[in-house]
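Re: that backbone. C-alpha cells:
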C-alpha cells in the first residue's frame, strides 16, 4: 500500500487537503469507480476471442484504490509523473498510463464542478 493511501487511512480528516475530497466522498468515489472499471473490463472481455484462458500476465503493482488515489493526487497537485511514480512505487510511464486510464472514468462519476475543485488549475 502506498504511503499516501496509508496516510489517508490513518488521517481521514486530512483527505480534503491531500486530494480535494472529503474522506466519505473519496470512499464513495472509489466504490463507484471500481464498479465502473469492472463493468468496462467485463465489456472488453466479452468482445475478446480467447485461445488461451485469461488470468495470465503480470499483476498490477497498484491496487485499484491506489490507482484512483494516484489520479486524484495528480489532479490536485499537478506534479510530474516521475515524482508521482516515485511516491507510488511505479515507473513514470505506469503513473502516466494509470492517470490516463482513470481520468475518463472519474469524469463520468464526478460533476465537472467537482473535478475543477479537485484540480487547482485547468489541465487543457
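Recovered sequence:
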Amino acid at each position: 500500500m502506498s504511503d499516501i493511501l496509508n496516510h489517508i487511512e490513518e488521517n481521514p480528516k486530512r483527505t480534503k487537503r491531500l486530494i480535494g475530497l472529503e474522506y466519505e466522498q473519496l470512499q464513495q468515489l472509489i466504490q463507484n469507480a471500481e464498479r465502473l472499471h469492472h463493468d468496462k473490463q467485463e465489456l472488453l472481455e466479452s468482445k475478446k476471442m480467447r485461445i488461451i484462458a485469461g488470468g495470465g500476465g503480470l499483476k498490477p503493482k497498484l491496487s485499484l484504490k491506489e490507482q484512483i488515489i494516484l489520479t486524484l493526487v495528480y489532479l490536485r497537485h499537478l506534479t510530474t509523473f516521475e515524482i508521482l511514480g516515485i511516491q507510488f512505487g511505479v515507473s513514470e510511464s505506469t503513473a502516466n498510463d494509470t492517470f490516463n486510464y482513470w481520468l475518463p472514468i472519474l469524469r463520468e462519476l464526478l460533476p465537472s464542478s467537482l473535478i475543477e475543485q479537485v484540480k487547482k488549475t485547468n489541465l487543457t
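The chain has one domain: 3-118. The two ends are 31 Å apart (CA to CA).
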